[in-house]
């Protein structure tokens, strides 16, 4: 395994290839967190970088990470522990934004332009948000709210991530690792251990109730979707919310019932054989016997931590898929 890690100097005029200790970690989360790279370098008389310096890492020729130094911690033995984030880190900025008649991808593009972020492929999310007031909240939360509204009203999920210095927004169907007949698969032989739980205690609802105060008619409109069969099994587990102007109440209630009317199943895998293509938001094939059920289908990576050591590369994964919620 060949790891190439480069750091720029403060003004971007020089690039260094430092002596890096083994144990580089690259971590990604599917929602509201930037990609993070942590590593240790040996301080010498040549190396000169600071907060804001660019960091680039390639592994076996694959573009893995591009970001910027945000933190460094020095020890007496001249070892510097460096934390770098990709450009999603700048979405943690807070602001107040009011927008109308925009899709989630259009809103993301607007934010990227305002904050000088590099944009790659932003797939069309199509669902138009009639109006939205985001006050004193992070850009991450604003974008996630737009994506959540799209999911809740259309059952279509989109993934936001940084791909080696470019913002990407892709539909879940575009996130499979590999190609037809050659998708990446995880099974008992490729992973060291797994932790599996199932529950109806969190994010499980078999009754959806949405209301909208119609100022024109003076009446409160109520929209309900429910599953009587699961109510008989689990009792009433109700999700309640109010609607914004322009939302289709019954369509949203039906979509929410589809999303939440199921057990939550959490699956965590440790020390899976590493693959540079896998990140949070990726879809991988899982083939595991979990005891009460056997999984043999695509699953969504909610979080992913890569660890690179000399001739070793493994991943720790949190997965969801079907009834799995990470």
**What is the number of strand segments?**
21
- The SS-based structural class is mainly beta
Oligomer: single chain
**Poorly predicted segments:** none
Q: Helix-strand pattern, N to C? A: EEEEEEEEHEEHEEEEEEHEHEEEE
Alpha carbon gap, first and last residue = 30 Å
Could you describe the largest sheet, including whether it forms a barrel?
13 strands, mixed
Taking all Cα atoms into account, the compactness measure Rg is: 22 Å
Helix content range of the residues, please?
10-25%
Average pLDDT level: 91
Shape: globular
Strand content: over 45%
Number of helices: 4
Produce a short descriptive summary.
This protein is mainly beta and 326 residues long. It is 14% helix and 47% strand. The protein is built from 4 helices and 21 strands.
Q: How would you portray this structure in words?
A:
The structure is a single chain. Helices cover 14% and strands 47% of the residues. The longest helix is centred in the middle third of the chain and has 16 residues, at 139-154. The chain has helices at residues 104-114, 139-154, 228-234, 249-260, and strands at 3-8, 15-16, 24-29, 36-42, 54-59, 62-74, 79-85, 94-102, 119-122, 129-138, 158-162, 167-171, 185-187, 193-199, 207-214, 219-226, 238-242, 264-273, 283-289, 294-309, 312-320. By secondary structure, it is mainly β. The strands form 4 sheets. Strands 1, 2, 3, 4, 5, 6, 7, 13, 14, 18, 19, 20 and 21 form a 13-stranded mixed beta sheet that branches. It has 4 helices and 21 strands.
